[in-house]
Write a structure and sequence with these properties.
With 687 residues, the chain is an alpha+beta fold. 53% of the residues lie in helices and 17% in strands. The protein has helices spanning 3-11, 13-35, 42-65, 76-100, 106-158, 163-171, 202-205, 210-213, 216-230, 271-299, 303-318, 361-366, 387-390, 424-493, 499-526, 540-550, 552-557, 574-590, 648-658; strands at 176-181, 187-192, 235-241, 244-254, 261-269, 322-328, 334-341, 352-354, 372-374, 396-402, 410-416, 536-539, 561-564, 569-572, 598-606, 609-616, 663-667, 673-680. Helix 1 crosses helix 4 (76-100), helix 11 runs antiparallel to helix 14 (424-493) and helix 14 runs antiparallel to helix 15. It is elongated.
Amino acid sequence: MMPLDRFLSDFGGRRAILSLGGLYAATGLIWPLTQVGDRLSLSDALIVAVLVGGSGIVLLYGGYRLPRTDIHPTFFTTIAGWCLRAIGVIVGVLLFISLVGQQSDPVTNALILSALAGVAGFGAGTHDARAKTRAYVLEQRNQELQATQAKLEETVDRLEASEQRYQTLTENFPNGVVALLDDELRHTLVAGQGLEETEYNPDELRGKRIHEVYPPETVAVIEPHYRATLEGESTVFELNVQEHTFEVRAHPLTTAGTDEDAVLVMTQDITNRKTREQELTNRVRQQQVVADLGQLALETDDLDELMREATRRVTTALEIEYCKVLDLDEQADELLLREGVGWDPGLVGEATVSAVEDDSQAAYTLKSDRPIVVEDLETETRFSGPDLLRTHGVRSGISTIVGPSDDPWGVLGAHDTDPQVFSEEDVTFVQSVANILAEAIERHQYQDELERSVANLKESNKRLEQFAYAASHDLQEPLRMVSSYLQLIERRYGEAFDEDGKEFLEFAIDGADRMRGMIDGLLAYSRVETSGEPFETVDLDAVFEGAREDLQMQIARNDATITTESLPSVRGDSDQLRQVFQNLVSNGIRYSGDEPPSIHVSADRNGSEWVVSVRDEGIGMDPDETEHIFDIFTRLHSRDEYDGSGVGLAVCERIVERHGGEIWAESEPGDGTTFSFTLPAVDERTG
């Protein structure tokens, strides 16, 4: 037993479903309220509440209704397992996306998608549990039948001495036939209810050998078994007679009062049982196909490979001749035979079907939000069928939309050359395969859009970096000239200015100095990616000591206290990480308020990352401002209160992002600020 199954068995499947529903319902109602105005707008919070809370209510209601369904309680754990595995797959996909890219709001995405996945898992699990319930009920009935059969055999053994007892038994044998044959395979006794559906009459069979009443193909099946029984060997075999299937049990006997050998034959009509077994086998096979295709959809990025495998598996599972995937063009006028099985060579990838003509089954399917089932195309009145179907002798089939009904991607069709009645399970199976294709196509399209967006963003960032570097570099020379001439005017003509003139000159010099600081900051910001060194193992203790030495004069001038815990080794650029420490510690000193600055640096391990924190006890800030302070040139205070260019924290953010981490601030007014950032830990196996 798998660990998840063992846990659900101990905890209880229905309890697990109700717990999931309660968790999502509570989360959907409470969590958005805590995020309104901070991370979510009111409309976004309402959407989260409806999707997450609604999914939780669906799970609660479904779990509450389970005892009133036809599902056996043993298989409640099956439904819970589907829910948890579906949630696990979605969470795994989101984690993967988080590792290879960025999400605007991973927590909200995880809540919504995992809640919807839980509901989808509940639906799939319910279907699976019903199938297992039917198999369980069938198995119970088979066991009961076998027990009845065993009791019957015991009864027959007790009645061997009396032919009258045989007669009584045979006349009351339900849904079957009891016969007694002598050593020449002649019927001496025939009775029972199993012959009512056949052309044989018990009275006509008595006294006749099997060769005289049964066709040669039937005799060829039963005679070897009867001969073996006369030799003392009991046999069991199946016999097909006029669309009925019988289970035949032959037992050796000695005729009462004589030494003659005989054969006691008990025949049970098992047609319905065989039909149910075949239906159950088909359902299990179809469910396995859906599971295999779902796994393939997660593993492959090749849509054509998935479509080829889907069409092949559908034809095998339904025992039909044709299957196709039609791709709707951008104008929604034609459908291309993208993939298929059974069609004439050269048609796949070339043949097209009208998406608008009235005689096209595909066009009719596109207009419907439910699968279209055709039992016999020759008697069909809704459409006559396109050339593709008529030229291949198609008579029956199932077709359904791939994708949403209001914006379909195409059509999945399964067809056969014989008229055929399809069950609801067959239709659901085709729809499930179409859903898998739709999800894979949507994911593929999303991945393509994401890759294009990332490529465009990289190109845009590259151009912006080039522009920022060129602009700031080109501004240096005229700014130096402005500063030089302002200083020259101050030295030569400063005494000639009145008070207003001197004040204006000071403003001009100060503005030029601030402009130089902003240009230097912009240069530093634009060079983070281009001027960085390759990553290597870096000792953060040594890096921090270097930053403290750079700030020695500022520390001494402000009587600052700097404390640090033992810092780890990480993968990174030592010069850039030194700049991060320098900027954060300098900020802590600058915004210390009236008290002497006190700053503490620490680090904590979090999986494959280290979380480094720089904590000060300064003036703090409003928590709503913590997301904006990393924007370039953003300042929370006027220059009269605190100096600075507004670039330092933006540079820190770019450096941390270059290292694959993130940086954030936690603060309250008057209670200090803690800046934290993540860095990749050193792999102990490689150093």
